[in-house]
Design goal:
Length: 63
């Protein structure tokens, strides 16, 4: 069975995307400092992950 691991990196100011990640069952792992680039320069990124165990647990608990 292949491993399932999805990682999202979202700018902290992107409230809509942060909400979507949380509602989709992703776990907030932390902040990658200066990990992103914009026209204005480097920015922090919030890191979320979803692994197979998270998906399996959601099916068992009925989420």
């Amino acid at each position: 069975m292949p491993h399932l691991c999805v990682e999202l990196r979202i700018a902290p100011g992107n409230a809509g995307s942060l909400r979507v990640a949380e509602r989709a069952g992703f776990t907030r792992e932390g902040t990658a400092r200066n990990a992103g680039f914009t026209d204005a320069g480097r920015v922090d990124l919030v890191v979320y992950s979803l692994i197979r165990a998270d998906v399996a647990g959601a099916h068992v608990s009925g989420k």
